């Protein structure tokens, strides 16, 4: 009896099997679940970085145009306000046109004067041609007279002295012809080409065209559809030629400049589809396509005081990733957009249905969070 009792007591005090304890230890179960989740997230992160790369560092970009007058002068009218949206051809501001209108009138007068001068030169050419014709006629007459005189001298009718006299008259008439030819050449050189090809006419017309162009440029027009920013103009303000008066955002072409880590670029290629969430359009997901990948970024700075390179310092086991720009063109015209607006971007680099489905759901969740 005593032995049986001791056996029963020993069996009662024996520890339970390990399998039973594992089912009853909640800490171990939670630990395993957490480890499994972390491992799954780690694997997903690696796969997502290749198949559905994502970045929250994206901006809406557009072309910025520095609006500056091509002529200087006093501002007489400002037709827009800062942050105003305008259409192509809208008058942004005007420069006082009076000095340029006066320049046009002066150029017109100069053109008329050149025309009159050319008319006088044409008359001089005509006069020189008439004198040449007269000189030629006199020379021919002198030749005939000299021939008769020489014949009569040979026959003894005239004395030998008449031969020298006739030759002198002939030489004089030849000299008059040569002088007349020189005068007509001089007049023609002074006149130059006739009509619109005349250099004086062309120069005067160019001056007039420039004056008219400067007059037109006193009205500064919007180059395209877009928006006005950084406007700092007032009536009466004096602007120099080429002085920036405002910044203009050209909204005809808008794109997304998204910065992706280097290790995401391996599978990204031009033409791949992308989902974009814009903070300015909460709850919406717009689509686009990759149009360009950046070839490089700046990674060094220079000390302004010494002019020497100032390498970046970093510490820790893992260095921060280098981000490279990827340009994405939207598939549709999305309004309104603002230059510099933040975006979240995901690119689908393959036809992997599982990863694409997870990415699709993820971007819709991100879109919902933009309401917050």
From TrEMBL:
Keywords: Membrane, Plasmid, Transmembrane, Transmembrane helix. Residues 253-293 form the CusB-like beta-barrel domain. InterPro entries: Beta-barrel_RND_2 (IPR058792), MdtA-like_BSH (IPR058625), MFP (IPR050739). Residues 1-21 are annotated as: Disordered. This is Secretion protein HlyD family protein. Residues 65-247 form the Multidrug resistance protein MdtA-like barrel-sandwich hybrid domain. It comes from Rhizobium favelukesii. The chain crosses the membrane at residues 30-47.
């Amino acid at each position: 009896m005593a032995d049986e009792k001791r056996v029963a007591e020993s069996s009662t005090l024996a520890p339970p099997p390990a399998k039973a304890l594992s089912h009853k230890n909640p800490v171990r179960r939670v630990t395993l679940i957490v480890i499994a989740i972390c491992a799954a997230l780690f694997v997903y992160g690696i796969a997502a970085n290749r198949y559905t790369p994502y970045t929250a560092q994206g901006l809406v970009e557009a072309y910025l145009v520095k609006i500056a007058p091509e002529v200087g002068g006093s501002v007489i009218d400002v037709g827009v306000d800062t942050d105003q949206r305008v259409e192509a051809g809208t008058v942004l501001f005007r420069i006082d046109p009076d000095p340029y209108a006066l320049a046009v009138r002066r150029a017109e007068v100069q053109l008329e004067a050149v025309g009159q001068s050319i008319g006088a030169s044409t008359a001089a050419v005509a006069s020189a041609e008439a004198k040449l014709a007269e000189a030629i006629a006199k020379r021919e007459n002198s030749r005939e007279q000299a021939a008769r005189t020489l014949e009569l001298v040979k026959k003894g009718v005239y004395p030998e002295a008449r031969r020298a006299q006739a030759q002198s008259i002939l030489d004089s008439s030849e000299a008059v012809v040569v002088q007349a030819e020189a005068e007509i050449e001089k007049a023609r050189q002074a006149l130059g080409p006739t009509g619109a090809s005349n250099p004086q006419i062309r120069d005067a017309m160019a001056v007039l065209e420039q004056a008219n162009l400067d007059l037109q440029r006193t009205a500064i027009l919007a180059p395209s559809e877009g928006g006005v920013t950084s406007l700092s103009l007032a009536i009466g303000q004096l602007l120099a030629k080429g002085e920036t008066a405002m910044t203009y955002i050209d909204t005809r072409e808008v794109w997304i400049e998204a910065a992706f880590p280097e290790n995401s670029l391996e599978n990204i290629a031009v033409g791949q589809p992308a989902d974009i969430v814009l903070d300015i359009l909460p709850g919406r997901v717009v689509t686009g396509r990759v149009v360009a990948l950046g070839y490089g970024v700046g990674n060094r700075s220079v000390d302004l005081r010494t002019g020497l390179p100032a390498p970046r310092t970093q510490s820790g086991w893992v260095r921060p990733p280098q981000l490279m720009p990827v340009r994405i063109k939207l598939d549709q015209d999305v309004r309104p957009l603002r230059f510099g607006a933040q975006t979240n971007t995901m690119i689908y680099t393959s036809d992997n249905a599982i990863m694409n489905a997870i990415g699709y759901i993820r971007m819709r969740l991100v879109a919902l969070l933009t309401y917050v």
